[in-house]
Design a protein that fits this description.
Layout (H helix, E strand, L loop, with lengths): L4 E4 L20 E5 L18 E5 L1 H8 L4 E4 L6 H10 L25 H8 L4 E4 L5 H10 L4 E3 L3 H27 L24 E3 L1
Parallel strand pairs: 1-4, 1-5, 5-6
Antiparallel strand pairs: 2-3, 2-7
């Protein structure tokens, strides 16, 4: 029996692009991605042509793999998510939804431009969808058109990611306190234990540990 799908957005759920630019969240790394390598919504991100700054937390990759879903990219990055995002998170190459001509095309009924294609892609298979742009019309559309169980806008997958980050932070703090008591404390704030499958971005780009 197939596991349920987890449709996964990048910008928002995994990459906190709206956070204060001078305050990278603890534990995150920074990727500098050429803007022509990712299709981004220029209405929500800077339209300046400097490289796109992407913050990612490798802990989230391990948490996602443990959720019990079959992961599928549902992001404007599409195939590029496997080139840039997956290696930094320690994820394998994942299937993705090709939005084609529907990309960024607004609908008059208020349903997000992703929604119909995700329902089509699921084809009756149970799914959860993690995104930061869902609204009530999306829930209504899925209820009306999807044949199987679905979870739109649930905080369960996001809560799992937050719990993973919280556990890692507590572990780091406990390590620092123990090392301090033994007189051998060294700051670990600027180090990240990356998964073994982590692959550095291509030449000419930069991945900076938080």
């Amino acid at each position: 029996m197939k596991r349920p799908l987890l449709f996964l957005d990048v910008d928002g759920p995994l990459h906190p692009y709206a956070a204060q630019p001078e305050r990278r969240p603890e534990g995150y790394i920074t990727l500098r991605v050429p803007r022509n390598a990712a299709l981004v919504d220029e209405g929500s991100l800077s339209s300046r042509r400097r490289p796109l700054r992407v913050w990612l937390d490798p802990v989230h990759g391990r948490a996602l793999l443990g959720l019990g879903y079959d992961l599928c990219w549902a992001t404007t990055w599409m195939a590029e998510a496997n080139h840039w995002i997956a290696p930094a998170l320690g994820l394998p190459e994942l299937p993705y939804v090709d939005f084609g001509d529907a990309l960024f095309r607004e609908r008059p009924d208020g349903v997000h431009w992703k929604t119909a294609l995700l329902v089509e892609h699921a084809d009756g298979r149970p799914f959860a969808w993690v995104d930061d742009e869902q609204t009530a019309p999306d829930r209504a559309y899925v209820d009306a058109h999807h044949r199987g169980p679905s979870t739109v806008g649930s905080q369960e997958p996001i809560s799992a990611l937050s719990s993973a980050r919280s556990s890692t932070s507590k572990s780091r703090t406990a390590h620092q306190k123990a090392a301090s008591r033994s007189g051998s404390w060294q700051s670990t704030t600027n180090s990240v234990s990356r998964p073994a499958t982590y692959a550095a971005p291509p030449a000419g780009t930069r991945a900076t540990p938080a």
